[in-house]
Structures are given as structure tokens and as C-alpha cells.
Design brief:
- The complex is a heterotrimer of chains A (105), B (670) and C (515).
- In chain A, helix 1 packs antiparallel against helix 2 and helix 2 runs antiparallel to helix 3.
- Helices cover 74% and strands 0% of the residues of chain A.
- Chain A contains three helices and no strands.
- Chain B is mainly α.
- Chain B is globular.
- With 515 residues, chain C is mainly α.
- Chain C has two domains: 278 residues, no CATH class; 237 residues, no CATH class.
- The longest helix of chain C has 32 residues.
- The radius of gyration of chain C is 22 Å and the shape is globular.
- The chains are: A mainly alpha (105), B mainly alpha (670), C mainly alpha (515).
- Chains B and C meet through strand 1, helix 5, helix 6 and helix 24 of B and helix 7, helix 12, helix 17, helix 18 and helix 20 of C.
């Protein structure tokens, strides 16, 4: 099998991942699920970086680096988010995002 | 002349003010009085010396080869340089009128200093509270008044003018716990301040056009075609050189300036309609009334006109009407004040109205003074009357003070028949009355006669009018005299001491002033004080003199009939003209009118609405900005629901709209 | 570079307050002795420094130095935007520096017994750092920075140590002044981008802009009004003055003194130094707008003061009137009037500080500022009452005290400006408003004497007041300092006039016809 790879083959799954992320982010009530949705979106962006780098500027590695950078950031961000969620769970005995509406005003 | 003595004349009273004001509380009452009086005595001696030098030494700086008296500036220190030649200086100008005023002020001031040693104590010899403060203020006043008369420029005069106003304020309000004294002092200050506004604007106009404040530059630089010593000499090309171009807001410029300046003088000299503060000023201690509100400060307006007289003459020669204005104001005031004086109860108020009337005499005298008639006789007469009036009016006031001190009331109804109890006061008061009534040979006769002669020469209406006022003067003064010393026997209430003459510190000034008031008329004033420094001999115009003497004697006779013994005649008179009497008694309701203007119109009609406007409209607008911002943020804060997913949804929709919109625009237009 | 900065004498006007703050930081919160010592020593050092600068300045001028600014120095701060720390003074700034140091000195004594002294003095001295920095700066950016430094502490000083409706007042004052500085910032940035030196660089330096750049006239018409309004808000110009009565009424004594005495002068100084000095053509053409507004301020403030019953409100409205006169005289564009404006700044700064000090002292004793509830204080506290009368006399323009000299210089200058305009056939606007402004001397007398009569004279209103005591030594020291300064200006005005006049007779003003 010799399939010619093109950008769309990567971008469409990435777009699908991103939309799933958005959908999950908006509809899910559980904070862990929201966090997972967020990761989905971030990962789809990472894929895009890698793909665009590969197809548009094959001789350079900027996009690749950026993906790596974003993965590292995502890890840090997840750690912080988990910490916040644990604290929130301790407060409300539940990981439901509704209970965090104290942020208003 | 060395400048040491003139400097001392000003510095000594100022130093006394500072010493007594700052350290007065650390010295005893007695010593404060002694120090204050002694230093004033020294100042008086110095003033006499300077005046003597000026009038009689014949030194070339004072008298020119023809015997004309000159203006001489002893020193002139820059104080504030404004622009070009406009420099405010503090200096010492000697000329006939300033030398004469030095004598008047220092004499009266010394007498008052001496007299107050007795007056400012009660019958047991206990000193009045704030005695040291009283002497400090007296010194401040003497300093300011001396500085005023020796001013070399109009701005120096204005500076000291304000200072005398302030010291008058402090002295009228000396009994500061008495509400009436407080409001009287406030009234005096504000009324004169209002007049000073005119003075200030007048100075602004005059100084802008002449480019100088100096009297000597304004008046005495010789100009071709005018051969007098005191001529209006402006810089070449100055607007005053060309009367045709002198217009300011429709009127002649110089006339406007002079009238505005004269309004300042009207305020200080209590001319109608700015006279209302003077009767109230009698709330001050009586020696203060004698010094400030009879002899010295209130004649500052007359002095001002006399000082600027060459300008008034120049104005007259160019068709201006400033002098006519002075005459008319003076004439109306003289008559009004004399009418009111006939009905007052309070002896100090009678004297106050009499002062207003007499100052108006001086104003009229200056106003009718023209070159054509006896070389400006009116000017000399006005100054002469200023001199004699200062002496006899101070005498009358000090006498009134002695009476008030003895009786404990200002009202003549509490006095009646005091002649046996207080013989010295009686005789000296009588001398004062005779002088002011113009009976030969007392001093008032000579000066008033000269004024009437000047009026006679200028304007027959003014002459008749002023003669009438002179008659009224004699009448109300003798009414006062009889009601105090005769009318009926004095009743001594049980438990009270009979009134008696006062200690020597109070009687001595009375005697000295009585002597001066008797003989001052024989001073050859024409040789000393004339408008252009040229001496001449006074001739008494016997026609005028005999008419005025007759009027005075008739008026005195009428007063004798009505008031010597208790009788129903005054009450009958009162009932015959009830309205006239009521208006006179209430001073033609001027105070009520002013009360209405200040309280109803200015306070309630201007100040309160402005304050309301500020708090509610202007500040309201500013607050409204804050309120609107606040309200708006409350209104939109519901969007901040705190639900994370709502935010994301809104964000998503927003991003889609923007993104979609951008794409759509790009497709449509590119 | 650092040694170069430290060798400039002016920089010490900022360093001394900073050192004072360092010293205060080392003290414990309620260690009154040390805190007072720091404040007093520091403010004496500031007075000494300003007198030293004055003498050096006069020496240089006497030697014939004609530069517009002396003791100049400029050190780059942020190269890409040409922001420098530039310092330099002329007679006007020196007058303001002397005024500020005297008031800081008097203010330290007036807050002798303040609560939480450490924090209070820290903020107060931060405020004075801003004030001194403002007056020595000749770089627009640095100037603006110091201006903001002076504004912010005001909020905390009023909000924490104030009285009455203090939160409202502090908020109002800060917001209105911040609103002013928003205008100002726009104006300053506009000036920066319109001032191009011959070598193509932009500059913030005032002297360079004035002498080497020509701001485009069209831009001037836009920038002049907003800069003037920006500073005018601080100078209590009608109709942007309403922060003043509320702010002063709530502020603690020393803050009122500094605010009315010095901070309001920043407004007048800035109007002249930035708006008029840099944009003379627009000043020539547009100053009539502000002439009308300030002319209204003068009588409006005075009339409002006539019916107030709170002592601080009376004085705040009187400040509106007097500060209005400052801007009014500046708008006359006449050497004499403008000199008078600076004299009036000095005079008003000192006498209003004296007023606020006295009001604070009286309030501290009677616990009321309502003149209807007090009376006969002359009998109870003669020292304070006499000082109040002196302050009142200075305010209503008694010769021998500072108010008279300043007002007369302004009136004579304004009248000349008005007549010049009138005779040149340009209408009588200046003349009319000069006469209107002259009327304020009468109204001033009315409200001053009203207060003196009600508050100090007459019978004692409240029997409890009879037990009150007179001034303490630190209060006496504070008031005497101010009275002596007021009298010094009133008695020897020529010295100050000569100090100030040089600035207003430079060639820059000759170019637009200021005589």
C-alpha cells in the first residue's frame, strides 16, 4: 500500500478531536471530564502544529518544538487543575462544576 | 532734612504695636499705658519738629525763592516693582497738608493715649481687660494713619488706607464679647472695603494712563503753558495730554478715575450713601471714636481729595465734573447728617452724625474751590476746617467719654443737669459746642466762615444750603449741650456715687484741646497751607461772617428756648411733624435698606442659590458620572454568572461569529 | 553615571524624602519619638536645601547666567522612548520648593499626635516625594510620574486617617484627579509625538521642546485645552472643583495643609509650565475660554463661601476663589499678572495651610467644625484665635501680609493686559473680568469677617468649651512658621517678585507678545 499522505488526513481527525473537546468541555458536569476534554483540545492543537510544520516547512523544527513545549505546559497545567479539583472536591464532596459558581460577581 | 526723624515717626508706633501686641501680657497694665503714652509723646514731639522745620525753617528744599512752599520727598524706598516705571514705594512726602496732618494726628493721638489711661479703668481703678491690646491697636492705628498722610504715591496711600481700615476694625470690635460691637466692626470694615473697590479701580485706571503711582510725577512736573508749581504733568503723548481721547466706557476717563477714587474717600469719610458704618462704629471705646471716627481716619477721604486736588483741577479745566460730584455728595450728606443729629438719643451718635456733617463741609469746600476765586480759597478753608474740626471734635468726644464714664450710659436721658457735678467737663464741652457752632472767636468760626465764603464765591445755592446746615449744626449741638448739662436737675440714684470730674489723665487732654479749639482760629492758615504752596493772607469776608454769625446765634437761641429747662416744646415740635421726626430718628431707614440689600438680595438671592447650585448641579453632575458607572456595572453583572461552561459557550459563539464574519467579509470583498 | 546624578543638588529633594521613608520603615509603629525625630530632621533638611538652592540660584543669576533653567541634569531612563530623568529649576520652581518644604515642616508639627504615626508619615512623605519630584522635573514623563506619586497616597491618607464621610470623599477626590490625569496623559503623549528635535528625535524635555521644537499649531489647539483642563482639575478650576470641598472636609489636618498648600499649586504650576510654556500660540488664542471659567471661579467660590457653615467648606471654597485667581492671572498672559499668579500660589499655599492647621487644631478641641455651634473662642483659646484672625487678614488682603501683594500684582497686571487688549480693539473681555475679579476682595472680606465674628468673637456659645486649652508648643511652632512666612512675603515682596519675574520675561513669551 502506498498511500500518498496529505495534510487533510491529519487535520480532519484533529478537527474532530477539537470539536469533541469543545463539546465535552461545555456539556460535561464532572470536572475531571472537563479536564479530559481540555486535554483533547490541546492535543489536537499539538497535532496541527506538527502537521503544519511537516507539510509547510519541512526543513524546520519550530512547530515540533512548539508541540513539545505545549505538551510540557499541558502537563503542568493538568497538575494545577487536578490540585484545584482536589481542593474543590474537598470543599463540596463532589466534582461537579456547578458547585464552583461562587466565582460570580 | 535727615531721614532719621521721619523714619522714627513711622517706626516708633509700629515698634510699639509689636512690643505691646506680642509682650503686652507680660507687662503690667500701668507700664503698658506709660510706655504707649510716652512713645506717642515722643512721636508727637518729632512730628512737631518736622512740621516746624517744614513751615518755619525756610530751608531751600521746603521753600523756593519766591516763598512758595514745595513738596519734598524725605525718602522713598522701593517696595514692589511692577512694570516699567510702575513701582510701589514706601516713602515720606512733606508738603503743607502732610505736615499739617502730622501735627493733627500726633496731637490727637497723644491726647487719646493719655486720656485712655484714665478711661480704660472703672471707678475703682481696675484696668479694663485687654488694656495692653488696646494700646497696641492704638499704636497700630497711629502708625497706619501717619503712613497714610506722608504717602509719596497713591499706592502707598492705598496700603495704609487698608491698614487704618483694619485697625479701625480691631478697635471698634475691642469689646469683642459684645455682639453689637462685633457686628459694628464688621459693618465698618465691609462698607469701607466696598468703597475701596472703587478706590482700587480708580488707581488702576489712573496708574495705567499716567504710568506712575507717584503724586509728584502725577501732579507737579512743570508743563509748558501752565506756570503753577502744582500742575498736572504727564509724560509726553500721555492720554491725559489730549482730553478729547479720554473716554472710558462712555465717560471721560479722568473723571471716571477721579470719581472712583472719590468713592473710596466717601467710604472712609462716611459720605452718603456709604455713611452707615460710622454711627455704628460708636460701639468702640470712646477714645477710639475721638481719635479714629472724629479727628483722623474719617478725614482721610478729604485728605485724599486734597492730595489729588491738582488732578481734580485739571479735570475741571478740561470740562470734567468730578469736583461738582464732590460738592453735591458733600452738600447732601451735610444736610442729611445734620437733620438726623437733631433727633438722636445717644450722645455719641449725635456727635457721629455731626462728624459726618462737618466732614461733608470740608468736602463741599474742596468741591467749590476754583482758581478764579481767592486763589482756591476753598482748598485752604477745607484744610483749615479739617484742622480745627479735629481739635474741637476730639474735644467733644473726649468730653462725651468723660460723661459716659461718669454716668455709665450713652443716653442723654441718664445725664441731664450735670453742669454742677462735672464743671471742667462742662466748660470744655461748652467750648467745643461754641467752636462747632461757629461763634467768634472760637476756631470753628474762622474755618467755617472761610468755607462759606468759598461757597459764596462759587455758587450761591451752595452758599445758602451750607449756611442752613451751619444753622442746624449750632442748633443740634446746643440741644445736646442743654440736654446733657441743663434741662432738669440730675437725679443721683441711691447707692450710686454722684458723677464727678474724672482723674487728671482725662481732664488734662480736655483742657489742652479746649485751649487749642479756642485759639486755633488765629493761626494764619493761608500762609501755611494753600493748594499750590503760594502763601496769602486770609481776609474775613464780613458780610458772610455776619450772616453766618446771626444764623448761629439764632439757632443757639432757639435751642436755649427749647431745651434749657424742662418744657413741653420739644414734644410739641415732635408731634407737629411726626413723620419727619420718625424718619430722622431712624436715620431715614438707610440701615434697613442696607440690611435688605445684604441679607435679602446678596445672601438669600445670590450666595445661597450659588451654594445650592454648586452642591446640587455641579457636584450632582460629577456624582452622576459615578452613579451612572455604578448602575451600569450592576446592570451588566448578571452576565458574570460564575458558571464556567456558560463563559466558554459565550466565548465559542463569539469566536465563531468573529471568525465566520471575517471569512464572509473576505469572500464578499476580495 | 550614579556619581553624576548624586552630584546634582536638585536630586536631593527626592533623596531626602526617600531616606526619611527608610528611616521611618525602621521605626516601630507607635514609637512617636523616633518618628517625629525623623519627620522634623528631614523637613528641616528640606528647608535648608531649598534655601541653599535659592541662594545659589540668586548667585548664578547675579553673575549673569541667562539659561532658562539652572542646575540642570539629564540621565536616560528608557532609551527607546527617550524618557529621561531631567531636572532643573528656575525662580518659579524654587518658590514652589520653598513653599513645599515650609509646609511639610509645619505639617509635621501639625500631625504631632496622629494615630498610627508610622504609616501616616510614610504616606505623607511619599506624597511630598511626589511633590518635590514634580517641581524639580523638566522631563514631561518624569513629571507626570511624580504627579501620580503625589496623588495616590492622598486616597489612603484621607480614607484611613480622615473624618466624616471619608470613603466617599477619598474616592471622589482620587477619581476626579485621576480623570484629570487621564486628560493630562493624553496631552503629554500628544506633545511628545509632536515635538521633534532638529536631529529627528522626539523629546520629553520641557526646555528643549520650548526652545527647539515647534509643535504644530493645529495640534496645539487640541493639546492645549486638554492639558490645561488636566492640570486645571487639580487647580480647582470651575466646574471641576467639587472634589475640593469634600476632600478637604474629610482630610486630616496635615493632609489638608499639604493638599491645599502644595498639591493644588501643582495644578497652577503645570498649567503654566506645560500648557502655556510649550504651546504659546494656542495659549494666546484659546486662553480666553479659561479666562472666563477662572473668572467665574473667583467670584463663584467667594459667593459660595459666604453661606457655608462648616469651617473646612468655607476654606475650601475660599481656595477655589483664590486658586481661581492664580489660573485667571496666568490666562492674562502678561508678565506682571503671571508674576502675581506665582505670588498668589505662594501666598495662598501658606495662608491656606495656616487656615487648615488652625481649623484642625480647633476641631481637635471642640470636635465640631460647625460655626453655629461655636463662638467666643477668642476668650477661650486666644492664641489660636489671634492666629486665625491673622490668617483671615492675609486672606482678605491686608497690606503687610502676603495676600495683598499677590492680589495687587495680579490686578495691576490684569488691568494692564485688559487695557492693552481694549486699546488694540480686541474687545473688553479681559478688562471686564479684571473688574469682576476685583470684586472678590469685597466678598472675601464678607465671608472672612463672618467667620471671625461668629467663631472667635461674641459670647461663648457652648459652656463646655470654656474648659478647653490653648495651643501646645508644637502647634505654636507650626503656626508661627507659617505666619512668619506669610509676613515675610507681605513685607518684602520685591525679593520674591524679582525671583519669579525672570521666568516670565524670557524671549519665548516675547515671541507671542507678552510684555
Amino acid at each position: 500500500m502506498n498511500i500518498e499522505l496529505n495534510a487533510l488526513m491529519f487535520l480532519i481527525p484533529s478537527l474532530f478531536m477539537f470539536c469533541c473537546g469543545i463539546y465535552g468541555f461545555i456539556t460535561r458536569r464532572n470536572m475531571i471530564a472537563i479536564l479530559i476534554s481540555l486535554e483533547l483540545m490541546l492535543n489536537s492543537v499539538d497535532i496541527n502544529f506538527a502537521v503544519f510544520n511537516r507539510f509547510l516547512f519541512p526543513g524546520q523544527l519550530d512547530g515540533m518544538f512548539f508541540s513539545l513545549f505545549a505538551i510540557a505546559l499541558a502537563a503542568a497545567e493538568t497538575a494545577i487543575a487536578i490540585a484545584i479539583i482536589i481542593n474543590a472536591v474537598r470543599l463540596s464532596r463532589d466534582a461537579d462544576v456547578k458547585d464552583l459558581s461562587k466565582m460570580k460577581f | 532734612m535727615e531721614s532719621l526723624i521721619p523714619v522714627l515717626i513711622l517706626a516708633l508706633p509700629l515698634a510699639m504695636f509689636l512690643i505691646l501686641g506680642l509682650f503686652g501680657n507680660y507687662m503690667s497694665h500701668k507700664w503698658a499705658g506709660i510706655i504707649g503714652t510716652t512713645s506717642m509723646g515722643v512721636v508727637m514731639a518729632l512730628c512737631y519738629f518736622v512740621a516746624y522745620q517744614y513751615f518755619f525753617s525756610g530751608a531751600p528744599e521746603f521753600v523756593d525763592a519766591d516763598g512758595n512752599r514745595l513738596q519734598f520727598i524725605v525718602f522713598n524706598q522701593d517696595w514692589l516693582a511692577l512694570y516699567e516705571k510702575l513701582v510701589i514705594r514706601i516713602g515720606f512726602l512733606l508738603d503743607p497738608i502732610s505736615a499739617m496732618m502730622l501735627v493733627v494726628i500726633s496731637t490727637i493721638s497723644f491726647m487719646v493715649h493719655l486720656y485712655s489711661n484714665g478711661y480704660m479703668r472703672d471707678h475703682h481703678g481696675v484696668w479694663e481687660k485687654g488694656f495692653q491690646r488696646f494700646y497696641a491697636f492704638l499704636s497700630l492705628f497711629s502708625f497706619s494713619m501717619l503712613g497714610l498722610v506722608v504717602a509719596t504715591n497713591i499706592f502707598q496711600m492705598y496700603i495704609f488706607w487698608e491698614l487704618v481700615g483694619a485697625s479701625s476694625y480691631l478697635l471698634i470690635g475691642f469689646y469683642y464679647t459684645k455682639p453689637s460691637a462685633v457686628s459694628a466692626s464688621k459693618k465698618a470694615f465691609i462698607v469701607t472695603r466696598f468703597a475701596d473697590l472703587g478706590f482700587l479701580i480708580g488707581i488702576l485706571i489712573l496708574s495705567f494712563y499716567t504710568g506712575t503711582f507717584n503724586f509728584t510725577d502725577m501732579t507737579s512736573a512743570p508743563v509748558a503753558g501752565m506756570d503753577n508749581v502744582y500742575q498736572v504733568g504727564m509724560a509726553a503723548g500721555s492720554i491725559f495730554q489730549n482730553p478729547a481721547t479720554m473716554s472710558f466706557l462712555g465717560g471721560s476717563l479722568l473723571t471716571t478715575a477721579l470719581i472712583l477714587i472719590f468713592i473710596g474717600g466717601m467710604g472712609k469719610s462716611a459720605m452718603m450713601p456709604l455713611h452707615i458704618w460710622l454711627p455704628d462704629a460708636m460701639e468702640g471705646p470712646t477714645p477710639v471714636s475721638a481719635l479714629i471716627h472724629a479727628a483722623t481716619m474719617v478725614v482721610a477721604g478729604v485728605y485724599l481729595v486734597a492730595r489729588l486736588f491738582p488732578l481734580f483741577m485739571f479735570n475741571e479745566a478740561n470740562g470734567g465734573f468730578a469736583l461738582e460730584f464732590v460738592t453735591i455728595v458733600g452738600a447732601i450728606t451735610a444736610f442729611y447728617a445734620a437733620m438726623v443729629a437733631c433727633t438722636q438719643l445717644d450722645i455719641k451718635r449725635v456727635l457721629a452724625f455731626s462728624t459726618i456733617s462737618q466732614i461733608a463741609f470740608m468736602m463741599v469746600s474742596l468741591g467749590v474751590s476754583r482758581e478764579g476765586y481767592h486763589e482756591n480759597l476753598g482748598y485752604m478753608a477745607g484744610m483749615f476746617h479739617l484742622f480745627t474740626h479735629a481739635m474741637f471734635k476730639a474735644l467733644l468726644f473726649l468730653g462725651a467719654g468723660a460723661l459716659i464714664h461718669a454716668v455709665g450710659s450713652n443716653d442723654y436721658t441718664a445725664m441731664h443737669g450735670l453742669r454742677k457735678y462735672m464743671p471742667i467737663t462742662h466748660i470744655t464741652f461748652l467750648v467745643g459746642c461754641l467752636a462747632i457752632a461757629g461763634i467768634i472767636p472760637f476756631s470753628g468760626f474762622f474755618s467755617k466762615d472761610e468755607i462759606l465764603t468759598a461757597c459764596f464765591g462759587n455758587n450761591i445755592v451752595a452758599y445758602v444750603w451750607m449756611s442752613l446746615v451751619a444753622g442746624l449744626t449750632a442748633f443740634y449741638m446746643f440741644r445736646l449741650y442743654y440736654l446733657i448739662f441743663w434741662w432738669k436737675e440730675h437725679k443721683v440714684h441711691e447707692g450710686h456715687h454722684a458723677p464727678h470730674d474724672q482723674p487728671w489723665t482725662m481732664t488734662l487732654p480736655l483742657i489742652i484741646l479746649a485751649v487749642v479749639a479756642t485759639f486755633a482760629g488765629f493761626i494764619p492758615f493761608g500762609k501755611l497751607v494753600t493748594w499750590n504752596g503760594e502763601p496769602y493772607t486770609i481776609h474775613i469776608n464780613w458780610t458772610v461772617a455776619s450772616i453766618s454769625l446771626t444764623i448761629a446765634v439764632l439757632a443757639i437761641a432757639l435751642a436755649t428756648i427749647m431745651y434749657k429747662k424742662e418744657n413741653p416744646l420739644p414734644a410739641k415740635m415732635k408731634n407737629a411733624f411726626p413723620n419727619l421726626w420718625r424718619w430722622c430718628r431712624n436715620r431715614f431707614y438707610w440701615d434697613e435698606l442696607y440690611m435688605f440689600i445684604t441679607h435679602k438680595i446678596i445672601f438669600n438671592g445670590i450666595c445661597s442659590p450659588i451654594a445650592w447650585f454648586d452642591r446640587h448641579i455641579i457636584d450632582g453632575t460629577m456624582d452622576a458620572f459615578a452613579t451612572v458607572t455604578n448602575k451600569a456595572s450592576y446592570a451588566i453583572r448578571g452576565l458574570q454568572s460564575g458558571k464556567l461552561q456558560n463563559y466558554v459557550l459565550v466565548y465559542l459563539i463569539g469566536a465563531l461569529i468573529l471568525g465566520g464574519g471575517t471569512v464572509a467579509i473576505m469572500f464578499l470583498f476580495f | 553615571m550614579l556619581s553624576e546624578i548624586f552630584s546634582n543638588v536638585l536630586i536631593y529633594f527626592v533623596i531626602i524624602p526617600l531616606v526619611m521613608m527608610g528611616g521611618l520603615a525602621l521605626c516601630r509603629e507607635n514609637d512617636y519619638k523616633k518618628i517625629r525625630a525623623v519627620a522634623v530632621v528631614g523637613s528641616i533638611a528640606l528647608i535648608a536645601l531649598s534655601v541653599y538652592v535659592l541662594l545659589e540660584y540668586l548667585k548664578l543669576r547675579h553673575a549673569g547666567v541667562e539659561d532658562p533653567m539652572l542646575f540642570t541634569g539629564s540621565w536616560s531612563w528608557f532609551g527607546p522612548l527617550n524618557i529621561c530623568l531631567s531636572v532643573g529649576v528656575d525662580g518659579v520652581s524654587i518658590a514652589m520648593l520653598i513653599l513645599s518644604s515650609i509646609i511639610v515642616f509645619a505639617g509635621s508639627f501639625a500631625s504631632w499626635k496622629i494615630e498610627q504615626p508610622k504609616s501616616f508619615f510614610l504616606w505623607l512623605i511619599l506624597l511630598s516625594t511626589g511633590v518635590f519630584g514634580f517641581f524639580i522635573s523638566i522631563d514631561l514623563f518624569t513629571m507626570f510620574m511624580f504627579y501620580e506619586v503625589a496623588l495616590i497616597p492622598m486616597y489612603l491618607l484621607i480614607g484611613v486617617w480622615g473624618s466624616g464621610n471619608k470613603n466617599y470623599s477619598a474616592m471622589k477626590l482620587t477619581l476626579m484627579l485621576m480623570g484629570g490625569s487621564a486628560f493630562l496623559m493624553l496631552g503629554l503623549i500628544g506633545i511628545y509625538y509632536n515635538s521633534v528635535l532638529p536631529d529627528g528625535e522626539h523629546t520629553w524635555n520641557i526646555v528643549k521642546i520650548a526652545h527647539e521644537c515647534n509643535i504644530d499649531k493645529g495640534w496645539q489647539y487640541f493639546l492645549f485645552p486638554i492639558t490645561f483642563v488636566g492640570f486645571g482639575v487639580l487647580g480647582a478650576m470651575f466646574p471641576f472643583h467639587t472634589w475640593s470641598p469634600d476632600g478637604h472636609a474629610s482630610a486630616p489636618t496635615a493632609v489638608s495643609m499639604l493638599h491645599a498648600g502644595v498639591l493644588m499649586k501643582l495644578g497652577g504650576y503645570g498649567c503654566f509650565r506645560v500648557a502655556m510654556y510649550l504651546m504659546p500660540e494656542a495659549a494666546q488664542d484659546l486662553s480666553w475660554i479659561f479666562l472666563v471659567l477662572t473668572g467665574i471661579s473667583v467670584v463663584y467660590g467667594a459667593f459660595s463661601a459666604c453661606v457655608q457653615t462648616d469651617l473646612k467648606y468655607i476654606n475650601a471654597y475660599s481656595s477655589v476663589s483664590h486658586c481661581g485667581l492664580v489660573l485667571f492671572a496666568l490666562c492674562m498672559l502678561n508678565t506682571t499678572a503671571m508674576t502675581g499668579a506665582v505670588m498668589q500660589m505662594l501666598s495662598h499655599g501658606l495662608m491656606t495651610a495656616l487656615f487648615f492647621a488652625l481649623i484642625g487644631m480647633i476641631y481637635g478641641r471642640t470636635h465640631t467644625r460647625d460655626i453655629r455651634q461655636m463662638g467666643g473662642l477668642m476668650h477661650i483659646m486666644p492664641y489660636l484665635a489671634v492666629c486665625y484672625v491673622i490668617a483671615g487678614m492675609a486672606s482678605l488682603g491686608l497690606p503687610g501680609l502676603s495676600g495683598f501683594v499677590a492680589e495687587m500684582t495680579i490686578f495691576i497686571g490684569s488691568f494692564k493686559a485688559g487695557m492693552d487688549e481694549f486699546l488694540a480693539g480686541h474687545g473688553a473681555l479681559k478688562l471686564t473680568f479684571t473688574i469682576v475679579a476685583c470684586c472678590s476682595i469685597v466678598i472675601t472680606a464678607v465671608y472672612i469677617l463672618r467667620v471671625v465674628g461668629k467663631l472667635l468673637l461674641g459670647p461663648v456659645q457652648d459652656k463646655h468649651h470654656l474648659e478647653l486649652t490653648d495651643a501646645t508648643w508644637w502647634e505654636r511652632l507650626s503656626t508661627i512658621t507659617l505666619i512668619v512666612s506669610v509676613a515675610a512675603i507681605g513685607l518684602f515682596p520685591n525679593f520674591f517678585e524679582n525671583l519669579i519675574k525672570f521666568t516670565f520675561s524670557g524671549d519665548l513669551f516675547a515671541a507671542i507678545g507678552i510684555k
